[in-house]
Amino acid sequence: MDRPLRAYAAVTAAYWAFMLSDGALRMLVLLHFNALGFSPVALAWLFLLYEIAGIVTNLAAGWIAARFGLASTLYGGLALQIAALVALANLDPGWSLSASVVFVMAVQGVSGVAKDLAKMSAKSAVKLLAPAGDGALFRWVAALTGSKNAVKGVGFFLGAALLAVAGFGAAVWGMAAVLALILIAVTAFLPPGLPAGKKGTKFAAVWSRDPRVNRLSLARMFLFGARDVWFVVGIPVYFGTVLSDGTPAGNRAAFFLIGGFMAAWIIGYGLVQALAPKILHGAAANGARAAARWAGALVPIPFALAAAALAAGGPAPWLTAVLVAGLLLFGVVFALNSSLHSWLILAFAGTGRVTMDVGFYYSANAAGRLLGTLLSGLSYQAGGLPLCLATAGLMALASALAMRPLARIAAA
């Protein structure tokens, strides 16, 4: 195996380990505190600092990697995630609701910094290490992104299963120990191949002046907002209401079922992303135009699900079945959108400033997740599932409108 491919494989393996813990931690926090009686808005607050941290971190991480090298941001991401897990394991169940919310928000903020350091490192490495020509960049991006999301989906189920079997504290300590071993292994065996930093890099350079990067970043913000509006709070809380009778045994059974669905959705999303170059075999000729078409295809799905939820008037078996089918369809179309975006940002990014363009783009991604997370709790509490899903539809529409001029800009 040549040196660039070895470096790419090592970065990918570290990213997989990180995303496994990230998915598990999200389900642990969501299900544990939902079982403790936290409201939808309180649950959303637990993840807000995680997303706010992502906005700032992606901008700073692009500069840090350009200044100090990609390996430094990868190691830093893994180390911070371990610190966040150790802190969370020390949560005192005797604390008040407000103290618990503030503490978990702070820990999730550290985890958000960690995630985006690791993500920016892995995605930037693809641009720098992928062979030129013959659609190789699209294939390498699809393989990394798709496999990452499949692994994160396994993490969703793992987190729910660990919560049901081992309990909150033991699950968090176990993940911290495994991730510490991964960090030691990556530090010891990561081969050369990632670029070193440049001392003269200025922080002001993180702001993109490329209209293609800016337009794509705007569309990305609304795209991930559309997903997280229903994904973070709305659907898990609805399924918890439907699947649990409120007893400890009922809660444990619901943990497995909710974790299983969320895991299946993320794994399926990742598989579609990995297959995107084959599904979208003609997209390489005009990726911006294909991305605009697929953005429009996403819009009707959440609106149709919102109409179904409104017609049902409350939890119902037929509605649950429609939601499962509709959200799986949403996942397929969303995955193709996301895969096209991930390829386009690397295609648009300048070789000399790839970490900064990628960091700027994923800062917009984090802004969308923040917006979606906040609206998830607010919309569900204000208008239940119909308003939550309708809000997702409005976000998808905004993403499609942002994408429409991109084909013209990219061709100019």
From TrEMBL:
<feature type="transmembrane region" description="Helical">
    <location>
        <begin position="179"/>
        <end position="197"/>
    </location>
</feature>
<feature type="transmembrane region" description="Helical">
    <location>
        <begin position="7"/>
        <end position="29"/>
    </location>
</feature>
<feature type="transmembrane region" description="Helical">
    <location>
        <begin position="292"/>
        <end position="312"/>
    </location>
</feature>
<feature type="transmembrane region" description="Helical">
    <location>
        <begin position="343"/>
        <end position="364"/>
    </location>
</feature>
<keyword id="KW-0812">Transmembrane</keyword>
<feature type="transmembrane region" description="Helical">
    <location>
        <begin position="95"/>
        <end position="114"/>
    </location>
</feature>
<protein>
    <submittedName>
        <fullName>MFS transporter</fullName>
    </submittedName>
</protein>
<dbReference type="InterPro" id="IPR047769">
    <property type="entry name" value="MFS_ArsJ"/>
</dbReference>
<feature type="transmembrane region" description="Helical">
    <location>
        <begin position="218"/>
        <end position="241"/>
    </location>
</feature>
<keyword id="KW-1133">Transmembrane helix</keyword>
<feature type="transmembrane region" description="Helical">
    <location>
        <begin position="41"/>
        <end position="61"/>
    </location>
</feature>
<feature type="transmembrane region" description="Helical">
    <location>
        <begin position="318"/>
        <end position="336"/>
    </location>
</feature>
<feature type="transmembrane region" description="Helical">
    <location>
        <begin position="68"/>
        <end position="89"/>
    </location>
</feature>
<keyword id="KW-0472">Membrane</keyword>
<feature type="transmembrane region" description="Helical">
    <location>
        <begin position="154"/>
        <end position="173"/>
    </location>
</feature>
<feature type="transmembrane region" description="Helical">
    <location>
        <begin position="384"/>
        <end position="403"/>
    </location>
</feature>
<feature type="transmembrane region" description="Helical">
    <location>
        <begin position="253"/>
        <end position="272"/>
    </location>
</feature>
<dbReference type="InterPro" id="IPR036259">
    <property type="entry name" value="MFS_trans_sf"/>
</dbReference>
